[in-house]
Write a structure and sequence with these properties.
The protein has 85 residues and is mainly alpha-helical. Helix content is 75%, strand content 0%. The chain has helices at residues 2-14, 18-64, 80-83. 1% of the residues are buried.
């Protein structure tokens, strides 16, 4: 996106027609805005992925401990026989 924005800026500088120059500069601004959106999205995805990696060991421990479901059954198949009342 940033390369395309730079290309729009070069095209704007080459123009003699004020309307075309304005169009290219407007397009450059839209490309820059879109690039910022993509960067924000990538940073947010990286942040969420990092959180999920930190939480994953806790979830694995919970599953291996045989968490009890709301109806009293075990969620872990290997613990079902020991959890039955």
């Amino acid at each position: 996106m940033l390369r395309r924005a730079a290309r729009c800026a070069r095209k704007a500088a080459e123009q003699t027609d004020p309307q075309l120059k304005e169009d290219y500069l407007g397009l450059q601004q839209k490309r820059l805005s879109l690039a910022r959106c993509f960067q924000t999205s990538e940073r947010l995805s990286d942040f969420v992925y990092g959180l999920s990696q930190k939480r994953q060991p806790a979830q694995i421990r919970q599953q291996s401990a045989g968490a009890i479901l709301s109806d009293g059954r075990c969620s872990s198949a290997r613990h079902r026989t020991s959890c039955r009342a």
